[in-house]
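INTERNAL AUDIT FORM
Audit reference: QA-55
Scope: verify that the stored structure record matches its stored sequence.
Auditor: D.O.
Record contents follow.
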Amino acid sequence: MKREDVEEMFPCGTIQEELHNSTVMIWGFQLLYAGIAVWGIYHGFVLYRELGYGWHTMIILSAFVAVYALLRMYQQDDVEAYIATEGIIVKRTPILVKERIHRFFAPDLYLTFVHYRGIMGLGEDWKTLYVQTDTGGIYVVPISLQFLSYEDKGKVLAALQGYKNT
């Protein structure tokens, strides 16, 4: 999704930074998913050749594994978070299998805008964002920022600290 689209979708002001996973993690996961896709395609052909027409279920399952791996490989370089002037926009981690499948086809629906004044902090493992609601409750947002580079994590912390100091 482009910066202009995100700025129109959320009341976030201007976007200052786009944060991606670290390059090492992107390449590592792309290689892993490419290997899984090759494995799925290879075993689909082997099953078809050896078993003939009787095992369509296994062939279809191998094809699903290959397609899933290719989709995950394609999505590795997606933006994980946007730092804006009014808040931070993070990609919420799906919890249910249905949400994971839905995220393949509509990844923009899992972007969540959080204003800086509501952010209480991040979890130690960068997998949770703690937000204070207007009624005083705490909302835990499941996020996946653990694979950001060290510099990008510093940018997130600097943005949070910058708002707290003003």
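Auditor finding: record pair retrieved intact. The radius of gyration is 20 Å.
Action required: none
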